[in-house]
Design a protein that fits this description.
The chain is α/β, with parallel strands linked by helices. Helices cover 46% and strands 12% of the residues. Helix 6 packs antiparallel against helix 7.
């Protein structure tokens, strides 16, 4: 039986007629409702029960066994997004301005007996910081500015002139002009601007190639077809630099109400088909084309789709609605109601990938002697291979091969994990008992991290056939697959809070998933580092590890 809410206050909620904000709130309640029906900041408890509305009973996908997992690689979220490109350009221009100032000083001024640390360095630093800052305010780090540099170079010249004007004004009012080389200042101003203009021209060609290949586009599927979908597709095509490619349309209605092809985009199935499509194809965003008044239909769709690692937006373009900040986003002049966001994307995804590769590589170097000793002990203790490979759920429900040091006798190993390890399990070897208690058997998963299948920190990857009291995990906790919206990890928020080891009850699994979802929705680099720092101390508690 799946976790459900016992809440006497819910019947009143069922009878609401939703306004635009009520709709957001009720969608939030579907995922983050507490036992008092209050909307609150995420915490592990909030995920315990997800089905709270009688209209949604039975709407979760009843998919059992390994059929839901996929053996083909699940498409990873793109790291090179428009936001990342914008940030990289900003950093490159800041570096170019800084290096130009240093180079011109070194060539023209270094032979003058003036201390550059006191005089020239503050000006170079000021210009290097202020130009990108003001350029951002002037809209020079948008995709339109990147692909049309000639149109935006006058604006860049205005920004550059304005910043250098403040430098001259400061020199004048502080009477410090005599301390600086006028030749250096003029060369810096002219050389820096020409370098930025040249960089922008080169960037335009690169971005043009990326745009033509669709590399920077967000791939969107439309939920709901017919005229609203056609109007939206037309509007997106007419919006300059929208950067959205519609990959298909999904609609539960028949062809009589929802045509098979809309503006050249095919209807690929219904919302249940969309879940499987998202597992196997690159997809960044879902745009729902329902009127706000269709509350029941909308909530039914959200109940099925919220587990996917994509942004979910409600199209308000055709309805001409306005929303308060942080409730909506824009693509050009088109507005969309934000329902769910992809947990990691853009800079956060890039930072986490760098974190994983750097720390995993460092750990492999530092722990290689320990891993060699464990491998030797496993080999000498019992016949069979040193490593054990098992299918587990990865990002977006992909079935991945996870590596561990073998801790069971070869003829008793359970690759499908249909029977989880228990206390005094006869299948476990003498060395296996020790390395399982100390989690040394998990060390080969550092190679999974370098490969990109795992992260250092994240929800632990569960075996495909794992059960809690003879019930598949997915049948215990409604919305279980939402824990796969991010990469699984070697350690996690649940593990350092004591939820490791045997999962022999539904309550234990529920608590783990609650912590997993909390981590996914609240990720930060500091959160990861905190979990990593706590992990060695959590390993000292071996009560539930066997």
């Amino acid at each position: 039986m799946k976790a459900t809410i016992n809440n006497a206050a819910l019947p009143a909620m069922v009878n609401w007629r939703l306004t635009a904000r009520n709709l957001l709130d009720e969608a939030y309640l579907l995922v983050f409702v507490s036992n008092e029906s209050k909307i609150m900041r995420p915490n592990p408890k909030q995920y315990e029960n997800l089905v709270s509305d009688e209209r949604l009973a039975g709407l979760s996908q009843d998919i059992t066994g390994e059929s839901f997992g996929q053996t083909a690689p699940s498409p990873q979220p793109p790291i090179l997004t428009r936001n990342v490109v914008s940030g990289l350009v900003r950093f490159a221009e800041m570096s170019a301005i800084l290096l130009t100032g240093i180079a011109t000083w070194g060539y023209l001024v270094s032979d003058i007996s003036i201390n550059p640390a006191i005089t020239y360095a503050p000006i170079i630093a000021y210009v290097s910081i202020m130009v990108p800052l003001v350029a951002g305010i002037a809209g020079l780090y948008t995709m339109a500015a990147f692909v049309q540099p000639i149109r935006h170079i006058p604006r860049l010249a205005l920004v550059w002139t304005g910043v250098f004007s403040t430098v001259l004004a400061l020199m004048f009012f502080t009477k410090a002009g005599d301390q600086f080389s006028r030749l250096w200042l003029g060369s810096y101003a002219l050389g820096g601007f020409l370098l930025l203009a040249a960089m922008r021209t080169g960037l335009a060609r690169l971005v043009d190639v990326w745009n033509k290949s669709g590399r920077l586009d967000r791939r969107a599927a439309l939920v709901g077809g017919g005229k609203p979908a056609g109007d939206l597709i037309d509007a997106l095509r007419e919006t300059p630099h929208a950067g959205v490619t519609v990959t298909g349309i999904f609609d539960d209605r028949g062809d009589d109400r929802s045509p098979a092809v809309v503006r050249g985009c095919k209807k690929l199935g219904n919302t249940r088909d969309l879940v499987e499509y998202a597992r196997r194809n690159p997809l960044d965003m879902l745009i729902i084309n329902f009127p706000v008044a269709a509350e029941t239909r909308l909530l039914e769709v959200l109940k099925q789709l919220w587990v996917l690692p994509v942004d979910i937006r409600l199209n308000t373009y055709a309805q001409k609605l306005r929303y308060r900040p942080r409730a909506y986003s824009h693509i050009g002049n088109l507005s969309f109601l934000d329902v769910f966001d992809r947990p990691l994307s853009g800079w956060s995804l890039l930072i986490k990938n760098i974190e994983d590769r750097l720390l995993a590589g460092l750990c492999l170097i530092l722990l290689s002697p320990v891993m060699a000793l464990v491998a030797l002990a496993v080999r000498l203790d019992s016949p069979g291979p040193v490593l054990f490979r098992q299918k587990r759920y990865g990002f977006n429900n992909e079935l991945i091969n996870v590596y561990k040091f073998r801790s069971m006798y070869t003829d008793m190993s359970d690759a499908r994990a249909e029977k989880l390890a228990t206390r005094n399990d006869p299948r476990i070897t003498r060395v296996g008992r020790f390395i399982r208690k100390t989690s040394l058997d998990e060390l080969p998963q550092l190679f999974n991290v370098l490969k990109g299948d795992l992260s250092l920190v994240g929800p632990r990857p569960h075996p495909a056939a794992a059960k809690a009291r003879d019930t598949l995990y997915m049948d215990v906790f409604d919305g279980y697959f939402a824990r796969h919206k991010g990469k699984p990890g070697i350690t996690g928020w649940a593990q350092i809070n004591g939820w490791r080891g045997e999962t022999d009850t539904h309550d234990k699994l529920t608590r783990r998933v609650e912590h997993d979802l909390y981590y996914i929705e609240n990720w930060s680099l500091l959160f990861d580092l905190y979990i990593l720092a706590r992990t060695p101390f959590a390993l000292l508690n071996t009560e539930n590890a066997y």
